[in-house]
């Protein structure tokens, strides 16, 4: 069974940092674009960032640009999201996902993790 397992969420004060990790199991995702989405109760899952399989291209939502950095280590089959200067509105469940086609539309992503909670206190 293919799984994406996120870790690194938690509680942090506004202005602080967290690093999320996503370690797929069950198969390799080396040829997949990997990404992160977040979701708050009652809202759609929203795109945050993505990185192509080679790491040569990265994509960010406007709110993440300059504060978040997505990276991947294909040797470890792991993708990371470094989140700096966190804001209270960043409180959400963060999901790791994999796709063969880069898109900000959640429904076009093929594999998902269970999510990790990030809470930013003011």
Structure notes:
- The chain has 122 residues and is an all-beta fold.
- 0% of the residues lie in helices and 50% in strands.
- It has strands at 3-7, 10-13, 18-25, 33-39, 46-51, 58-60, 68-73, 78-83, 92-99, 111-112, 116-121.
- The strands form two sheets. Strands 2, 4, 5, 6, 9, 10 and 11 form a seven-stranded mixed sheet that branches. It has a four-stranded antiparallel sheet with strand order 1-3-8-7, with no helix packed on it.
- A hairpin with a 6-residue loop joins β4 (33-39) and β5 (46-51).
- The termini are far apart.
- The mean pLDDT is 94.
Describe the sheet with the most strands. 7 strands, mixed
What is the overall silhouette?
globular
Q: Strand fraction band?
A: over 45%
* Global structural class: mainly beta
Assembly annotation? single chain
Strands, count = 11
Low-confidence stretches: none
Kindly state the mean pLDDT as a whole number? 94
End-to-end separation in angstroms reads: 39 Å
The helix count comes to 0
Sequence-ordered SSE layout with sheet pairings:
Layout lengths: L2 E5 L2 E4 L4 E8 L7 E7 L6 E6 L6 E3 L7 E6 L4 E6 L8 E8 L11 E2 L3 E6 L1
Parallel strand pairs: 2-11
Antiparallel strand pairs: 1-3, 3-8, 4-5, 4-9, 5-6, 7-8, 9-10, 9-11
Properties at a glance:
mainly beta, seven-stranded mixed beta sheet, four-stranded antiparallel beta sheet, globular
Please sum up the structure shown.
This protein has 122 residues and is mainly beta. It has no helices and 11 strands. The strands form 2 sheets. Strands 2, 4, 5, 6, 9, 10 and 11 form a 7-stranded mixed beta sheet that branches. It has a 4-stranded antiparallel beta sheet with strand order 1-3-8-7, with no helix packed on it.
């Amino acid at each position: 069974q293919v799984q994406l397992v996120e870790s690194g969420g938690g509680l942090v004060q506004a202005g602080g940092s967290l690093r999320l990790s996503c370690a797929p199991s069950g198969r390799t995702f080396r040829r997949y674009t990997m990404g992160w989405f977040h979701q708050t109760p009652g809202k759609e899952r929203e795109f945050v960032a993505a990185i192509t399989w080679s790491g040569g291209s990265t994509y960010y939502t406007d709110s993440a640009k300059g504060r978040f950095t997505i990276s991947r280590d294909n040797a470890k089959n792991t993708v990371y999201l470094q989140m700096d200067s966190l804001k209270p509105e960043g409180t959400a469940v963060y999901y790791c996902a994999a796709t063969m086609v880069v898109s900000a539309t959640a429904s076009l992503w093929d594999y998902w993790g269970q999510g990790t909670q990030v809470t930013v206190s003011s």
